[in-house]
Fold this sequence. Notes:
Blueprint: E1 22-24, E2 31-33, H1 34-40, E3 75-78, E4 85-87, H2 104-108, E5 154-155, E6 158-159, H3 160-167, H4 171-184, H5 191-196, H6 198-203, H7 207-242, H8 254-265, H9 269-314, H10 318-328, H11 333-352
Antiparallel strand pairs: 1-2, 3-4, 5-6
Protein name: Zinc-ribbon domain-containing protein
Region (Disordered): 51-80
Transmembrane segments: 209-231, 272-292, 330-349
Amino acid sequence: MIDYTGLNCPVCGKPFARDDDIVVCPECGAPYHRECYAQAGKCVFSDKHGTSAAWTPPQNEPKPAEPAQNPADSRTKRCPRCGSMNSQNAMFCDHCGQSLTMNQQDVAGFPPNGGIPQNGFPPNGFPPMGAPFQQGQPVPFIFDPMGGVNPSEPIGNVPAGDVAKLVQSNTQYYLPVFMNLHRFRRNRFNFSAFLFSGGWMLYRKQYKIGSVITAIMTVLYLISTYVSLNFSMPLLETLMQQQGISIDTVSPTYSQLLQVSELLAQQPVQQILLFCVPTIIAIVQIIIMLVVGFNGNKWYLKHCVSKIEQIHQQTPEATLAAIQLQEQGGVNTSLAIGLLICYMIVFYLPQII
């Protein structure tokens, strides 16, 4: 059965609609609006019936053959981190910046060639990005390593995808924070930076400012420990013994503490200041920690943008630049472990001695 929708009526020239009342010539099959055929009284092609010039239904034109697709351009490589599909020759994920050169099944449990297990989801519990959910199947939490940020969106003067390639670890936190800083100047307090200060910066490969803050905090701690062990604690023990308070007392009473405070106030000014040095240093350390906590994300964003711009200037080729981002970015875990060991030694050594 021929579909005449869209063909033109030979009498009025108007295209046929799907609901039009159409009649056809019994000889050649030419279609007409019923009113148009009644108006003409006959088929307008009647003098050509039986010849090659008679009306014939239009033939569907063959579709042009699609150009062969380059196998390298087909998106068959699945990212083991977010599940996005990438071109076969891609070295890094276009969505989250994850390296694609490692074995996918060893990293995240994906079957070879980007396949999906029978249950429809990879063994790591995360569905591939954009995968349809089957009816009746439980909908799991979809992990987006970009935190909802489009990889092509600019952060500063660099695309968010390059920032993700440099940050690598915990991008789902840093990418939205960086985007809010760039768009709206809205900062977010970084508790990791607050708690670990210079150590957090060294862990995030901000070596210059991280070394400075770590050195300052270390010097302050050493001074506080030395003054406390050699001046403050001995002076406090002496004053407590003068009031008949044993140093083994678990919790002195309020009146006993008040008597010790009165004795301390009677000491020379130099002794009082020396006694207060550990407390003053503790306040300074807290202030430094707060400053780093409030400004850590800003400093880290500035570091990332500067590093990415430097890499692109030195390495214009995109693939080599992506490799440099992967190598120079991320975190320094070995340095963080070394700092933790040093901190434990410095903290517990005075107590052992």
